[in-house]
């Protein structure tokens, strides 16, 4: 188990240049502080820069203004200290489950015994013991996403980024995987940042929800979710938080939220 990371984002702005078109301002002066071990979810309409922000945090793009630091060190390039899970599980079809997870440890510098132990522990963590030799086509959609989570956690990162990891699943599988992610977060103690369009998912999983608006992408409200775990989706307090987030997103009766100070 890694030490959970402290992520700091200060005045981050990002533009894209397209041939023959003016600059596109994707992110504008984004500020966010994610405490060690927190579960933070970012919600907002399509095009508000949620996934772009994750790309900057993971280190896939360093062409931006501002500062992004993990444990007081500027993020430069990708590193095993930052894991990521995408909407598409991206398992290699010619490798078994254990081989797919092990592939994420190739540059870890660990011994073979350490790698094997990490693979076994994280397969067990996501409830896939017994499927070590299975190929991706032999796994259900939910099992494949659990495998992707195991792969993201196997290197024991300080922070795990989840980019719509449940978006392609059916409703019942999605609810089950939400329970699994919440359990895994509590067991691992890792800092997690989730991007989702599902407001109920955000309230169910998070202790903080960040609401973004588009054109340009910016944070309009940050809400602390103080409900105890496990959470009841029918609880009036839960429903009230969903409504408040939808209002901040401008999707509740056409209302819009006042920008956070």
Tally the helices: 7
SSE-based structural type:
alpha/beta
As a percent range, the share of helical residues equals 25-40%
Major β-sheet profile: 6 strands, mixed
| Unreliable stretches covering 5 or more consecutive residues | 253-261
**How big is the Rg?**
19 Å
Supply the CATH architecture: 3-Layer(aba) Sandwich
Please tell me the overall pLDDT. Answer: 91
Overall number of domains: 1
Shape type: globular
The CATH class, by name, is Alpha Beta
Strand order of the largest sheet: 6-7-8-3-9-10
Number of strands: 10
What name is given to the CATH topology? Rossmann fold
End-to-end separation in angstroms reads 36 Å
SSE order: EEEHEEEHHHEHEHEEH
CATH-level-4 superfamily name: P-loop containing nucleotide triphosphate hydrolases
Strand content: 15-25%
Structure write-up:
The protein has one domain: P-loop containing nucleotide triphosphate hydrolases (Rossmann fold). It starts with 6 loop residues before the first strand and ends in a 13-residue tail after the last helix. The strands form 2 sheets. It has a 6-stranded mixed sheet, with helices on both faces. The protein has 261 residues and is α/β, with parallel strands linked by helices. The C terminus is likely disordered. Strand 4 and strand 5 form a beta hairpin. The protein contains 7 helices and 10 strands.
Brief overview, please?
31% of the residues lie in helices and 23% in strands.
List keywords for this structure.
261 residues, alpha/beta, Rossmann fold, six-stranded mixed sheet, four-stranded antiparallel sheet, 7 helices, 10 strands, disordered C terminus
């Amino acid at each position: 188990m890694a030490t959970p990371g402290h992520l700091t984002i200060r005045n981050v702005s990002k533009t894209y240049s397209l041939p023959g078109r003016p600059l596109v301002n994707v992110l504008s002066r984004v500020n966010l502080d994610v405490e060690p071990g927190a579960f933070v979810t970012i919600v907002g309409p399509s095009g508000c820069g949620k996934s772009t922000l994750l790309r900057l945090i993971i280190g896939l793009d360093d062409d931006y203004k501002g500062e992004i630091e993990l444990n007081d060190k500027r993020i430069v390039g990708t590193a095993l200290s930052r894991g990521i899970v995408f909407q598409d599980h991206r398992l290699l079809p010619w490798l078994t489950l254990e081989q797919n997870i092990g592939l994420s440890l190739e540059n870890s510098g660990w011994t073979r015994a350490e790698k094997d132990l990490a693979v076994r522990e994280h397969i067990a963590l996501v409830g896939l013991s017994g499927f070590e030799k299975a190929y991706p086509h032999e796994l259900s959609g939910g099992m494949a996403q659990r495998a992707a989570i195991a792969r993201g956690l196997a290197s024991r990162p300080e922070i795990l980024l989840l980019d719509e990891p449940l978006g392609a699943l059916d409703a019942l599988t999605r609810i089950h995987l939400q329970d699994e992610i919440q359990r895994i977060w509590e067991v691992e103690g890792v800092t997690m940042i989730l991007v989702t369009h599902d407001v109920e998912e955000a309230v169910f999983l998070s202790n903080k929800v960040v609401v973004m608006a588009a054109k340009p992408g910016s944070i309009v409200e940050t809400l602390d979710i103080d409900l105890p775990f496990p959470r009841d989706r029918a609880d009036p307090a839960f429903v009230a938080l969903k409504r408040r987030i939808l209002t901040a997103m401008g999707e509740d009766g056409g209302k819009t939220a006042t920008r956070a100070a």
